[in-house]
Amino acid sequence: METKPATSVALLRLRQAVATAGICARQTLAGGLTQSLGTNLARLARLFVFCLLWKGLARAGADLGGMQEGALLTYTLVSFAFRPQLDIVSPATASLWEGSVIGRYTRPMPVYISYIAETVGRWWLPFFALFALPALLAAPLFGVSPLPQSAAAGGLFLCSLVLSIVIGFALDLIFAALAMFLKNAMWMATRIREAVYNLLSGALIPFALMPAPVGGLLGLLPFGSVASAPLSIYVGAQNAPQLLLLQLFWAVVLWPAAHLAYKKAEERMVSYGG
Amino acid sequence: MAAKNTLRTWARLMRTYAKMDALYFLRDTRICLLYMFSDSVVSISGVFGMLLLAGRLGQSTGFSQNELYFLAACALLVNGLYDLFFMNNNAGAPSRIIGRGQLDHALIQPVPLPLHFITNGFAPASGCGTLLCGVAFSLWAAARLPGGVWLVAKALPLLVLSVGILFAWVYGVSALAFWAPYAAEEIAPDVTALFSSLAAYPLEVLGRFAQFFLCGLLPVGAMAWLPTSVLLGKAAPGPSIGLLAATAAASGLVAATIFRKGLNHYAKVSCPRYTGFGR
Amino acid sequence: MQKYPAQDIPALAVEDVSKVYWQWQRGGTGKDVLKNLLHPQKRRVQALDALNLTVNAGEFVAYAGANGAGKSTTIKILAGILQPSEGRVRVLGMDPAKDRVRLMARIGVLFGQRSELWWDYPVIASYEWKRAVWNIPQEKYDEMLNFATEILELGPILNTFARELSLGQKMRADLGMLLLHDPQVIFLDEPTLGLDLLAKRSLIRALKTLNRQHGTTILVTSHDMDDLQEMADRIVLLSRGRLAYDGTFAALRHGEAGQGGQVRIRVQSAGGTLPPVEGLRHLSTQNGESLYALDTQTTNINQALAAIATLPGIRDIEIQQPSIEDVIARLYQSWAAQ
After folding, report:
1. Prediction ipTM score
2. pTM, full prediction
3. Is residue A204 part of a domain?
């Protein structure tokens, strides 16, 4: 049997991923700007109120756990702007729910690539174009700096963000596998996941503001590595190398676990989803 | 006569949906209990952040630590009441019904649409998890305050107004799905998230204008902060309750107008998509 | 309050109804997406075009047309879910757009592939829900439940969860639910879609019984013309939103698309070419099988058959009418070519 060189397979996969991401993005964007205006306004309002509250608290002399007002505002802004990357929700679980998971198995490409490409196309690109970019550009007008604490912090943030995405996809696959066994309780599990993420990831409330032992403990968990680590690095955390190492640890531990869990659930998933 | 008939229909529908919810509970009690548990976890984690902050922020918020607990408990009560009345059948997330093209199922029933929406989400069995947590938490928090547990009873009428405001905002914004069914399908959860994630924060630290903005124009502060401020004697009752009632009335009016416009649009174009998912 | 409309009021009256939709136009390229973000392109679609239709109480009407002809749009307008762009609609004398709530208590609508059953409940729980929401008196409910159970053979599935029903069972259960308030008019949008032969027959039998025994006015759409022919006496055909035909199936068959009443006669003989028969046009002969064409408008079919019977070595005679599917397919093709 003829085998294709690795580079041509990689190129093919890339083309497949780009085509899939492209069609997903077009589907979301095709209705015009007004179509997603409401959702983005709701996000913007939430960001605005959060910033207003942090400013108010800082000005009232509240103990911000050593964080400066500016850093806290930037942390919140970046958390909102990179939300899809800091909280990976791929179509794995939803497709199972809707019974459309079987479609991914009929495509001549690995299922993981389908999930990743759809995530990028359906959520990342429209979110970036219609919310993140305008929010980051408009932030200085409201006294919030969108810039990292330093160029080095910016560079380290990018590394941390990549690791965060890697951990996020692993967690998502583990969750999809778990959800497979929960069946009817899948919806419930998704809600718990969302709520726990909001609390344990540090995306909404920085760990620095929580009581020290609680913040310290949460920082060690995978959820903390997903959101709090890159955000803290962005605003100039001193312990960036440790945070990156911890992220690497979770990535190395979670990916094999995710692959194993997903494979175990796969057969059941396809028959149930189809 | 018409009002009497409407009341009768309301009672009949509430009875029916309560019975169906109980049937669901009894059919699969394990799942139902799990649902209640998940609702509780979701709601508690929504206000837990405030609890974690309470210790550190303390007096600088204008609220004592115990007062912050009571504020968080009131936010939980609002979520609990909303879940109790609107949790089932996506009644609390109408953008999904509209965006998925499922409104026709309601339109072929001989029931006025508003009556349908305020009754078919009623979940006294499966939707009471958050409320029970809210009641327990608020009793605990109120007992640590000078007003005692009676504060909870006093809070209820004000919190009903807060639920009304939330309901109006969810429906008003969800009407966007009439024009953009795909893009706005999930906008109702965005609105509830906007309100519930900010409900437990004290707005004492903000200026007067910001407070008015967040209680009247984008009324996240009307969820729990404004009622709690009145109950704890931090705000003048007359103007504050007046503002709460006016916000509820204005929100309801605006939402009804937008929703009606959306319905008129729907009557012209229907919904170009349909999915049975989530019915 | 008058419960039923006066006899001279038609069950359905559609007068000069037009309906216009706008469809989003989307390109596939990135440039199109960007362009579309600022200026979404739309296309005008005339779903119904000056449609006139009257259906009297107790009629069973088949409503057909090619995909996109406007069938579902008509049903949605009749049910008050959609408003016409122009024209006037009355159902049981009421304006569906204004009297939706009152009207829904007296009509029933079933969209094929959309179930009104509650997914996570046994069928009977959905029926009980309907009794409460439609405020059906217990006596009437019991009567209609018995009737529906009998004609739709619902007994074995009443206590089964809706999500566990087969497609055919679900359709029967849905139809049973539709009947509980004894609607005077029912609209069925493709009720036989996806059903197997037995399920179809059972459903059709039930609908005919309902129409006969209860005098229920039925308007049914389907793409299966044999099903429609079996159910209905009258067929209304739509083409691009316009009324293209309104009459009986028999008249349709004998019309232009039915090739003016032409039938074919296949004659199986012992062998060889048969001699000419008066009034029949010989088409072909192959392996002892001869094919003739006969125009029923000019030739008496009994006389022709008698003449064939006198031919030597005849083994079998078969009269072949054009199938209703063929007739309608020819119509659709001719409309599409216009």
Report:
1. 0.81
2. 0.83
3. yes
